[in-house]
Design a protein that fits this description.
326 residues, alpha+beta, Pnp Oxidase, Chain A, Arc Repressor Mutant, subunit A, 2 domains, 7-stranded antiparallel beta sheet, 40% helix, 24% strand, binds flavin mononucleotide
């Protein structure tokens, strides 16, 4: 245990406590709206309904909160990170261009939050360099929106657990259990691909053929070298390259350009790949609906991180693709 008063270490240790993020609003003596981002919010009592938060004595909005007698706590949703940043900037006109309502306690009400609590100041306590405000809740509402999370000095993503995290067997050196990441990612991939297997078969396409045609659809005509490089990121060995087969089936053809030969989709190749992509998009939509919007984003975010960490080159490939599609 450190007994020295080292503010940086103390702040870092406090950051281990994961919180939501709120914006607290009130009005100053002129009736102008005032607000600031705060994560010191907590519940105190159910009966009477009391909550608290603390405000730095150095905050520009301190006089307004100390004197107004009313304030409203907005628990931010995961979509409101930019709003949190805006209200964490000192003294700016934080409400400029914002659509707000006025609550029954006279304080500005922000919209699209995870929950809101209208409060009347019950107690104020000195808290070192902060003032602690305890308020009685006079009105509240809540929604199903996923809350914004703050952990270790950064915004974080909240996701619901589906079961225990990690199996004991995963720690054993010889185990190749269902907790092995490669197994999970691979199985998810093959099961998803399995869901469009019948469409691939209808079009007579193998997995590398589908990969090649969809690459040409997204990126336009490509040289053989570029296609081989892209194939490398698909996980199929170069000898699986289906260029000749697809040309023989007239799904793609070679064009002569200024920079040499390039391969492009033919009409029938385009139709075949669009047919399969439509099915894949429909299966993705079904899956995302079951997963829920926020968990779907968390999953995509983690998969993108894994892709970047295991093959940084593939991110460049991707960005080029996205630029082109955009
Ligand atoms: C996630 C987060 C949580 C914060 N929590 C608090 C808090 O609980 N109390 C506080 O006084 N400042 C807190 N701050 C800092 C204030 O939002 C910031 O100092 C703001 O500029 C104060 O505005 P003002 O000086 O215009 O009043 C927090 C900032 C962030 C980004």
């Amino acid at each position: 245990m450190s007994t020295e008063n080292n503010p940086q270490d103390f702040r870092r240790a406090l950051g281990a406590f994961t919180t939501g993020v709120t914006i607290v609003t009130t009005c100053d003596a002129d009736g102008s709206p005032v607000g600031m981002t705060a994560n010191s919010f907590n519940s105190v009592s159910l009966d009477p309904p009391l909550v608290l938060w603390s405000i730095a004595k150095s905050a520009k909005s301190l006089p307004a909160f100390a004197e107004s007698g009313h304030w409203t706590v907005h628990i931010l949703s995961a979509e409101q990170e930019a709003l949190s940043d805006r209200f964490a900037r000192r003294g700016e006109d934080k409400f400029a261009g914002l659509q707000t309502e006025t609550g029954s306690n006279g304080c500005p009400l922000l919209t699209d939050c995870a929950a809101r609590f209208q409060c009347k100041t019950s107690f104020q306590y000195d808290g070192g360099d902060h003032l602690i405000l305890v308020g009685e809740v006079t009105g509240f509402d809540s929604s199903e929106r996923t809350p914004l999370v703050f952990h270790g000095g950064r915004y974080a993503l909240a996701t619901k657990k589906s079961g225990p995290l990690g199996l004991a067997a995963a720690d054993e050196p010889h185990s190749f259990s269902e907790d092995f990441l490669g197994y999970l990612v691979g199985r998810a991939h093959y099961q998803f691909l399995g869901s469009i297997r019948s469409e691939l078969e209808t079009q007579g396409l193998s997995d590398p053929e589908f990969f090649t045609l969809s690459t040409l659809l997204q990126r336009g005509a490509q040289s053989r070298g570029a296609l081989d490089e892209l194939m490398r990121h698909s996980g199929f060995p170069a000898q699986f390259s289906p260029i000749e087969r697809l040309c023989a089936r007239e799904m793609m053809h070679e064009e002569q350009g200024e920079t040499g030969g390039r391969y492009a989709l033919t009409r029938s190749g385009r139709q075949a790949v669009l047919f399969v992509i439509a099915a894949a998009k429909a299966r993705e939509a079904d899956l995302l609906e079951k997963l829920g919007d926020w968990d779907a984003r968390v999953l995509k975010n983690l998969l993108k991180q894994m892709i970047a960490l295991t093959d940084p080159g593939s991110v460049e490939v991707w960005q080029a693709t996205q630029t082109r599609v955009a």
